[in-house]
Write a structure and sequence with these properties.
The chain has 14 helices and no strands. By secondary structure, it is an all-alpha fold. The protein has one domain: MetI-like (MetI-like fold, Orthogonal Bundle), CATH 1.10.3720.10. The termini are far apart.
Length: 310
């Protein structure tokens, strides 16, 4: 080959060495990933693994017999499991619906700088500062049929004392009311943060165009914080399926199984009846239900399709 042909031949591109700085973002998120693996992936994997064994507390796991899919087949035919699922669905429907309505309404009322707004905001978030165990004890005494303040004050308006935690319907109302009291401030905080982050130019332009108060709320503000509302809804949905401490102290799942949420049913199976393998199988069901409901909400709302969301 001639020298001219050698010169005309294109030179091979030399790939530059990788810059270590390109990996720096991954080093920053590595601690969060490790924490997620340790606190989420590993427990879920272990629960799924344990569901294939019949293991009881106090015995060596190596001696636990392998039962395969027996726990899952038993779970499908167990009416107590599906009754607790139904109680959880009812509980979640009423609590999330009322909490979203109250939280959004209070945020809309207190988003403007009015006199005393800071005091009201502080009062509203106080329930979030109370430990769940303390919340359960407080409302257990308030709903007490003999010494509870609720029956005491209802007597002033002519209402007979009620056995709040001894009647199935009243007990269900008690846990719904307690959850609303505790978690409505959570919705309030998230929504008011979203409202205060709205660009003032859009709101001022809407006022110039002559929109009224209802149009401002339902056509301007709420659509612009759609992603915020979806996040609040998802977080409350997950919380409903993992609610345990307050309900355990308040009613213990009774009377009967009227207030036995799915999380409380799992707890009772694991520690009261020592059926850890079966409880793990029900835990897998809980994870699947939460995943499917969350996925359905995200697909239906698609909060990231509108770039104007805050």
């Amino acid at each position: 080959m001639s020298a001219q042909a050698e010169l005309a031949k294109p030179a091979l591109a030399v790939k530059p060495p990788m810059d270590i700085r390109a990996l720096s973002p991954y080093f920053f998120i590595l601690p969060a990933v490790l924490i997620m693996v340790a606190g989420l992936v590993y427990p879920v994997t272990q629960a799924f693994y344990l569901s294939f064994y019949d293991w009881k507390i106090g015995t060596d796991f190596d001696d636990a017999p392998y039962v395969g899919m027996r726990h899952f087949l038993r779970m499908v035919a167990d009416p107590d499991v599906w009754e607790s699922v139904w109680v959880t669905v009812r509980f979640g429907f009423w609590t999330i619906t009322i909490e979203m309505a109250l939280g959004v309404g209070l945020a809309l009322l207190l988003e403007k700088p009015i006199r005393g707004a800071s005091v009201f905001r502080t009062i509203f978030i106080l329930p979030l500062m109370v430990s769940p165990v303390v919340v359960g004890l407080i409302w257990r005494y308030l709903f007490d049929a003999r010494i509870g303040w609720i029956n005491y004050y209802l007597g002033f308006i002519g209402i007979e004392p009620q056995v709040w935690l001894g009647d199935p319907e009243l007990a269900f109302f008690a846990i719904v009311f307690t959850d609303i009291w505790q978690w409505t401030p959570f919705i309030f905080i998230i929504v008011i943060a979203g409202l205060q982050a709205l660009p003032s130019e859009v709101v001022e332009a809407a006022k110039i165009d002559g929109v009224n108060w209802w149009q401002m709320i339902f056509l301007i503000k709420l659509p612009m914080i759609k992603s915020v509302l979806v996040i609040a809804l998802l977080m409350r949905l997950i919380d409903v399926f993992r609610a345990l401490e307050v309900m355990y102290i308040l009613t213990g799942g009774g009377p009967g199984r009227a207030t036995e949420l799915l999380s409380l049913h799992i707890y009772n199976r694991a520690f009261d009846t020592q059926q850890l393998g079966y409880a793990s199988a029900i835990s897998v069901l809980l994870i699947v239900i939460v995943f499917l409901l969350s996925l359905a909400i995200l697909v239906a709302s698609n909060p990231m399709k509108d770039k104007s969301d805050v």
